[in-house]
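hi! just following up on the protien thing from before. the input was this:
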Amino acid sequence: MPDTAQQLEDRIAELRASVRRAVSAGDRVGARQLRAELRQAENAWEDAVLGIELEDEPVEPAPAVPVREHVHRALTLLGAPATPKLVLGVHEAFFSGELIPARLTSLRRDEERSFRSAPQARPYYICSALTTDLLAPARGLLAVSTWPLDKRMIGPLSPRVDLLNCTIRLAEHMAAQPSTDRRAQRVLWKLAISIPGVRGGPDTIDHADVIDCATRELSVHQAEDAARRAEAAQRANNRLDHTAQLFGVRLGIADRQADMADTRRKEVG
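and the predicted 3d structure came back as:
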């Protein structure tokens, strides 16, 4: 059998497994894209083995998935604000399609421009997490606009709480799958290795053990973190317009907006 045919058989097996994972994860767009790639690989295998040109209808090229959709899928699985590096790792381990790291650099700015030009024109936006003290964009964190405001707030304990929550969500997702990609195992291990009580390496880490250890530590920090986030969310809701609630404000602007809001309330009173 020609080397190209063997390579195509390996590719077909890989694509079939990826289709199953995409369907299990509810990733319909990714599943359609993968099925189109699978049909192309199967047709190429027929050509390589039989030496004939198939007369089937040409396979339409798989539509390119926007960067924002790739990021949205990864953030939805994580369930908390995340760095571009973590988003990339989760996308590569759990989803299909190409996500170029350089495209993430300007994504949030592009989303803000889109929102300002046509507010609420899209069902969701990739937006900012906001610091609880200054209501400014949290450096290097991406979030989803449809999340509650308090979920996008970042206080002193929030990075740890979010790490624990993300770890639990990934472990639960992986435990429900019939098989787990080694890349997914490694992503989970990198998140879980700092949690007290978690043992094992990337290939031996136990999902149930990760969930138990992360849940125990989460119970220590969650209440205090939730209170800080709720207070900051209420303050942001009172002080900021909707655009600023999604993308934050530069230092000093929040205070000026608060003064204006106080002035308006006094005038109304």
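The radius of gyration is 23 Å.
Residues 52-57 have pLDDT under 50 and may be disordered.
cheers
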